[in-house]
Amino acid sequence: MRYQSTRGNSPQQSFLEILLGGLAPDGGLYLPTEYPQVTTAQLDSWRGLPYADLAYEVLSLYCTDIPENDLRALLRKTYTAEVYCNGRPQDNAQDITPLHWLGEEQGTRIGLLSLSNGPTLAFKDMAMQFLGNLFEYALKQTGQKLNILGATSGDTGSAAEYAIRGKEGIKVFMLSPRGKMSAFQAAQMYSLQDPNIFNLAVDGVFDDCQDIVKAVSNDHAFKLKSEIGTVNSINWGRVVAQVVYYFQGYLLATKTSTEKVSFTVPSGNFGNICAGHIARMMGLPIAHLVAATNENDVLDEFFRTGVYRARKSAETLHTSSPSMDISKASNFERFVYDLLSQDGKATAEMFKQVDAVGGFDISKEAIFKDIGKYGFQSGRSSHQNRIETIQDIDQRYGVMIDTHTADGVKVARDHLQAGIPMIVLETALPIKFEETIELALGRPAECPAAFKDIKSKPQRVENIAADVMQVKAFITAHLT
Ligand SMILES: Cc1ncc(COP(=O)(O)O)c(C=O)c1O
Ligand SMILES: N[C@@H](CCOP(=O)(O)O)C(=O)O
């Protein structure tokens, strides 16, 4: 399988070649030259497979330069019930991403796909644990070192750091928006004392952190000299590993592979739902992919109106689902590339416009009229909506959900279709946003034993301005 850039001006490369690099040299994002197609018979034959083996079936279509036995071994090492039971040991832990039906609403079943049982209690662990093992494997083959530069709004950071702490030859430099994450999220990252982990608290919002990562990646000389790699969903490895749980969710929800299912995805950087889009492009029978945003509703606005209007940092709101406080959704470019029939030149033009004037408007163009064929729908949730949804799901079903999942449930309920099951992706555990849970329910969220005293541990973090030069200087000073 070869990979090409969404901006059409980088040489095609193999999976392992793009894995360590992140952004393509022309500033675009990598996508496969074609989406492998999965037949109904293939899907049926995957029913009942252990998660690691299902992951092998899906990922072997993409990671064609990793020998079969190595890929299978990496996946079996990654996807174990021991690694994915940190939050809530449960009966069906062997499913890795168990599906919990909540009940029947408006003539259809609604359920939660549990993606947050990994070491840091958010869905990011699903891909990041695999990437940690894969980086180690790839570096052993080449003898290279890797310095990861990442941006986080709270969950990617800790998932990457827990996956990579203590690994030989890899350092992590993680940019986080100072004061914008929950106290629990900050403590998860900043309490790590491993010498290969560096936390930088940036004076800005997540988008400022993400812009710095992209600017550093676009300085090709610095990137090469400093062996910079990425773990954000701009890295194809992250997205493709997330494709697997759409297959798992579908197979757990259905009895035959002709049935349709819809997914609602709490969305910010468009990485998670982009993985759903790819699963659908591969032939997974997904009726709708519903993007649920919080008050930072750039994506909802686009799907409703055809106008993509990235917000400036000062316009990005600090909400009670803070991991989705994102106004420039990186992976949206991957979808736009497909929407433009994989025309790299046209995609580059659109995103040049985003940099120059902050967005684009396709509301009057034929491609916007065609958007329905990709199955996307969208909606937005507010602080009041999420409080009411957390209360309602607790009262009605006895299930406590986090604030991001609550945004998902709220928007899912606005898009139920009789007879088509709706799966909401559960993206984090409630303890990560305990202040809002207390506010909604008047009682504390359950805290896994491993994190009981997390907030009282000493923290190691450096404050830094939202300045590319300062970040480069920090990295350079900590490379040896
Ligand atoms: C808990 C949680 N929910 C939802 C999201 C949004 O996911 P994405 O950025 O892939 O759209 C994030 C961050 O990415 C998150 O951390
Ligand atoms: N919500 C994320 C930020 C987006 O990260 P990505 O790695 O999925 O691109 C976070 O919690 O850090």
Shape: globular
**Portion of residues in helices?**
40-55%
Q: Mind telling me which CATH architecture of the domain at 83-121 and 237-441 this is? A: 3-Layer(aba) Sandwich
CATH topology of the domain at 83-121 and 237-441: Rossmann fold
Distance between the termini: 35 Å
| Extended strand count | 15
Q: Summarize the biggest pleated sheet.
A: 6 strands, mixed
Low-confidence spans: none
- From the alpha-carbon coordinates, what is the Rg to the nearest angstrom? 21 Å
Bound molecules: pyridoxal-5'-phosphate, the ligand N[C@@H](CCOP(=O)(O)O)C(=O)O
Bin the strand percentage: 15-25%
The number of helical elements comes to 19
Q: What is the CATH first-level class name of the domain at 83-121 and 237-441?
A: Alpha Beta
pLDDT averaged over residues: 96
User: Which structural class should the secondary elements be placed in?
Assistant: alpha/beta
| Strand arrangement in the largest pleated sheet | 3-4-14-9-10-13
Description of the molecule:
Helix 6 (156-164) links the parallel strand 5 (146-151) and strand 6. The mean pLDDT is 96. Helix 4 crosses helix 5 (124-142) and helix 16 (383-397) crosses helix 17. A 6-stranded mixed sheet has the order 3-4-14-9-10-13, with helices on both faces. Strands 8-5-6-7-15 form a 5-stranded parallel sheet, with helices on both faces. The two termini are 35 Å apart. By secondary structure, it is an alpha/beta fold. It has a domain at 83-121 and 237-441: 3-Layer(aba) Sandwich (Rossmann fold), CATH 3.40.50.1100. The protein has helices spanning 15-19, 40-45, 51-59, 68-78, 124-142, 156-164, 183-190, 206-218, 220-225, 236-253, 271-281, 298-305, 332-339, 344-357, 366-369, 383-397, 403-413, 434-441, 468-477, and strands at 3-5, 30-32, 99-105, 108-114, 146-151, 170-177, 197-202, 228-229, 261-266, 286-293, 307-309, 359-361, 376-380, 422-426, 462-464. Residues 152-157, 206, 232-233, 268-269, 271, 323, 330 line the site of the ligand N[C@@H](CCOP(=O)(O)O)C(=O)O.
